[in-house]
What does this fold into?
Amino acid sequence: MDELNRLLEGNKRYMSGKLAEKDVGSAREASKNKQTPFATILTCSDSRVVPEFIFDANVGELFVIRNAGNIIDDIVLGTIEYGTEHLGTPLLVVLGHEKCGAVTAACSGGECPPNIAAIMSKIKPAKAKGGGVEEVIDNNMKNVVDEIRDGSEIVRHLEKEGRLKIVEIKYFFENGRVEVK
Ligand SMILES: [Zn+2]
It folds into this structure.
């Protein structure tokens, strides 16, 4: 099964409410000296968007980066490079979600404290493309993928060599489903 299918199969289990039986102790033991995750995932800090639950994954399987709005800066890019190049995950997922608070705030505009403003400014280009909140969320995911490619020679190289696949996935609260964009 390829890595994307592995995530989607896990999501089916999550949606059904019947997660795979996991021996977390064994997984911890097996990975104590080395991690071998199969996917790098950049997602939002939203407490309801938890990749290990959404994709029914165990300890050591997902290399996860989270921040409000699943946005890019140098540290995120470096972390993505660590996951994809150093750890060699063949899959990189940008996992956005419906009703994202960070994107909603960016769409509303208004004054905010400087550190929050830094987040808003990252979402601005998606907002500038117009549309409602959900369209801005989708455009933000697209922009993030573009920023990864523009900003990382390592990622471009891995993709060119066929060693890395990048996908955008959107998560929905209602039934826990995900949609591959
Ligand atoms: Zn969010």
Remarks:
- The chain has a mean pLDDT of 97.
- The chain has one domain: 3-99+145-180.
- DSSP finds eight helices and five strands in the chain.
- Strands lie at 39-44, 62-67, 91-97, 165-171, 178-180.
